[in-house]
Design brief:
Layout: H1 3-27, H2 35-78, H3 83-113
Helix pairs in contact: 2-3
Length: 115
């Protein structure tokens, strides 16, 4: 493995361990808390998990839609006569990318209000 890749892997591992430790500390698993505090912590962690699920789940569709729009504009600039076909395909691909974001929204709502 290259030195840069190994250093990047170590940084990622350290960041994951730190985040896991913070989660355990905040959720009361790593420290002793009273029963009343634990219920509030569970509720707050649930909504935090829902927010993270929505935030991470929206990144992929946002990047995909941006790339689709940019490439469609490039294609229109090179071949303006094909505007109808390019626009139709672009809208269809954006709808598929947006569906992934809607799945993330549904999972986020399920985490926040059902589980």
């Amino acid at each position: 493995m290259h030195a840069a890749t190994l250093a990047l892997t170590r940084r990622g591992l350290m960041a994951a361990l730190i985040l896991a430790g913070l989660f355990l500390l905040a959720s009361g698993i790593a420290g002793a808390q009273e029963a009343g505090d634990n219920e509030n912590t569970v509720q707050s962690m649930k909504f935090l998990a829902a927010a993270i699920a929505m935030g991470v789940g929206a990144v992929g569709p946002a990047i995909g839609i941006g790339l689709l729009g940019g490439k469609a504009m490039e294609a229109l600039g090179r071949n303006p006569e094909a505007a109808g076909a390019i626009q139709t395909n672009m809208i269809l691909a954006i709808a598929f990318a947006e569906a992934i974001g809607i799945y993330a929204l549904v999972v986020s709502i399920l985490i926040g209000f059902v589980f």
